[in-house]
Amino acid sequence: MPISSPGGGVAVRAPLDLSLYLVTDTVMCARVGVPATVAAAVAAGVTIVQLRDPAASDAELVALGRAVRAVLAGTGVPLVVNDRVDLVAAIGAQGAHVGQGDLDVGRARALLGGSGYLGLSVHSVEQVTAAMSCGTDTLDYLGVRPVWETSSKADAAPPGGLERLQAITTTSSWPCVAIGGITPARVDALRSRGVASLAVISAICGQQDVARQHAGCEQRWISRGRPATSGEFERRRPGPPSPSRSARRAHERSCGNESTTGSPEHRRQ
After folding, report:
1. 5 domain residue, yes or no
2. What confidence tens digit (pLDDT) does each residue in 92-149 have?
3. Distance in Å from the first CA to the final CA of the chain
4. Is 23 left (phi over 0), alpha (psi -120 to 50) or beta?
5. CATH number at residue 196
6. Which residues pair with 80 in a beta bridge?
7. Which domain holds residue 101?
8. N or C: which end of the chain has fewer CB within 10 A?
9. What's the structural domain count of the chain?
10. d(CA 81, CA 171)
11. Residue 144 placed within a domain
12. pTM given for the model
């Protein structure tokens, strides 16, 4: 995906392999630690890792992120940082993932420059439309959450279910990663709703046999056909319909035309 770089040139981000997306949970991984969990998960086939620890201080997250980056060295698996876009460079990560209450995507993209990956969590078609109005090159993928009830995120939005998931994937110009209550038994239902990938937390974090847990999801997922990478996802649609007032407000929040409150140290999604 080409995008203008801060220096005025064009930066090209390599396609993301979103086949299986791991979101870390420090508490769930306490028995063996996040770095060891990530190492086992990548050895089992995880293709992208999001570092998430809303309770950690900035210094703690940087230290943890560097430890995770060390185990990912040489694997080709990218590391993205949840929420704290300002710490991506210090960690040496390849990108960031933001939520609706985090830094808006316009400012996040400005901080990352053209070469960093950027994902956005969405819960509704309106949020997708707002994000699309920022330009399709601003983001690399969407995280659609939560599909089903989940205990991995205490403040998660109410589950949207499969119908809302399909409405979002149909609208989106980006590949969509489903998250929330993902189990091997539910994988087939996700594939039929236009999802490009799935993300897991508790299905891997804290599990005694990471490879076995991973295989349950991966085998069902891959057996239905290889998921698209972000670079192969070309479902570009005509521009979104004229937005409602609420959609315009969502656009302002997403693209940086409305001030956001709270320092990175106090925003935790």
Report:
1. no
2. 999 999 999 889 999 999 999 999 999 999 999 999 999 999 999 999 999 998 887 7
3. 26
4. beta
5. 3.20.20.70
6. 50, 95
7. 15-255
8. C
9. 1
10. 26
11. yes
12. 0.80
